[in-house]
Amino acid sequence: MDLKERILNATNGGLEVIYYYYPSAREVVDGRAKSFKIRDERTASASIRKYKDMWIVTDFGDDSHGRNCFDICMREENITTFSQALHL
């Protein structure tokens, strides 16, 4: 099992990493909300869903690209390589 798979297994498909960066995502996963806010905005525009064995966040108020926990880590920590995200 490679490092990526170990991280995904240890974090419920990356969900715990997503909660670290976006705590309000928990309300969507718990079924209490349909979307959540990533930044200071008037209307929540991000969604979260499970795709295969990995959780994906899509921010429709930004570029509407789905991001997994590694992509989110790279974006929020302002790092440029996947290997940096794996080690962080």
How would you describe the shape? globular
Count of β-strands: 3
- Cα(first) to Cα(last) distance is 18 Å
Task: Sketch the topology as an H/E string, one letter per element.
Answer: HHHEEEHH
Number of separate helices: 5
**How big a fraction of the residues is strand?**
15-25%
Provide mean pLDDT, rounded: 95
Task: Explain how this protein is built.
The protein has five helices and three strands. By secondary structure, it is of the alpha+beta class. Strand 2 (54-59) and strand 3 (66-67) form a beta hairpin. The protein is globular, with a radius of gyration of 13 Å.
Key words describing this protein structure:
about 90 residues, alpha+beta, about 40% helix, globular
Architecture blueprint of SSEs:
Elements: H1 3-10, H2 15-21, H3 25-29, E1 46-51, E2 54-59, E3 66-67, H4 69-77, H5 82-87
Antiparallel strand pairs: 1-2, 2-3
Helix pairs in contact: 2-4
Brief characterization of the structure:
This protein has helices at residues 3-10, 15-21, 25-29, 69-77, 82-87; strands at residues 46-51, 54-59, 66-67. With 88 residues, the chain is α+β, with helices and mostly antiparallel strands.
